[in-house]
Amino acid sequence: MAPYKKIKNNQTKFYNPVGPQAPITPADMEHAAGLRETEINTEPAEVIDVILNTEHAHFDSTIPDPEEQIGMIQVRRIHSDQNLTDQENLPWAVPLTRNIKQYPVVHEIVLVTTHVSKQSVESPDAEIIYYHDILNLWGSVHHNALPFLSIPDPASDEENESKIEEYKSAGFGNPNVAGDEGSDIELGDTFKEQPKIRPIQPYEGDLTIEGRFGHSIRFGSAVKGTPENTWSDPSTDDPTEPILIIRNGQDQDLEDGGEHVIENPDTAASSIWMTRGQTVPLTFGSTKYDALSFEAGENTVGEDLTAPTSDSLIDEEGERLGQILLTSNRLIFNSREAGTYIFGGGGIGLTTETDMTFDAGSEFLVDTPSIYLNATEKLEIEAPLIYLGKSQQSEDDGGVGATQATKGHPLVLGDEDDLWKSTLCDIIDAMLTTLQSEIHPTPAGPSGPPIQAPQYAGQQSDIATLKASLATSYSDTVWVQRNG
Description:
Layout: E1 2-9, H1 26-33, E2 35-50, E3 73-77, E4 92-95, E5 109-116, E6 127-134, H2 161-166, E7 207-210, E8 215-221, E9 242-248, E10 270-276, E11 322-328, H3 404-407, H4 414-436, H5 453-469
Helix pairs in contact: 4-5
């Protein structure tokens, strides 16, 4: 126990706890006689139960502000309640603070202290037990439970006597060792021990926050330490460059044990890296860089394919700039009602090894001086109406004539147009054949063949040549379909 004294001033005269600043007077002696000293203890206590929801057996919905019971724990104080096995008589404690919550699991050891409560307004002596600080018994970020520490001398008829004796073995129950969790010890209704969970490696100046299940937040820097981290650039001698790493889910291939680990974007389930001057060893999910390195036009996005992970972002004054890297097996960006916006001052590059889709319920708009499409197999455009050109907007659904000025010119179907042209050539050829053998009646009798017959024959040859060339006027790469 860690006792300290609480002095209650039962009079209205000012009391100086430092001590007298002048010779003691009879009035001072009279005032001191009215003071009452009470010893206050901060004591370790073993957690027996935790209220985390309204369905808990001890949650009382009839009291004012019942939600205040969330986070309350039942404890067996190591000294004051030692060997007390009647759980109904064990006290309850409330969290000392409410803004940052860290609720213990069953059998962890916390510090408890008695302080004033909201009932102290009516009764100054009204107090409740507060808990804070889980004792770091095992050095584990996963849990630090040590079951039955508060029952060092169990009765012979105690239900858990064998378990209590089991945990008296030095080091037994270490969460960093697989198979050392004891016999049927429950650390809560759902909490299961995971020996793989490791703490993250600290470096000088770090501020880290770590959860129980392999998630962490590091407020670090580009410091070079031992062991080497994954982000400090060996070529940089400035360790003050900040880095913020948010990690959820550690490497699942780790062996059991309590050794410290270093964040790695390729092995964590998900992570966010906010850097300034660090090089992050991120493996890209796609290595298809064809569009990023496309030579047509003035493509600046793919000038340096290492830029997304390097420390090469430096401004004109030589200051290193920051970047944010998000990596996971899947990324979903969702805006429920308003829009989603991406702005890229130096370009935007999207790449995938498989499919890329765009769906828009109204319009898909692209505004750029030039567009380059490089399809290695085919390009398909499926739409009821397709306009190519400038300002081709009209509510009219087709045709030429009065609306031609706004609709432009319709695209001709090549094979159908050639069929029409071929038929026209056949008609003209037949007409020329008829003209070559045309005979007219005259007073002297029927006339002979027209004197233009040779010209008609030459024109027939030209028509045959024109008809033969129709099959060679098709495009090998562009195809269209009739609407409907």
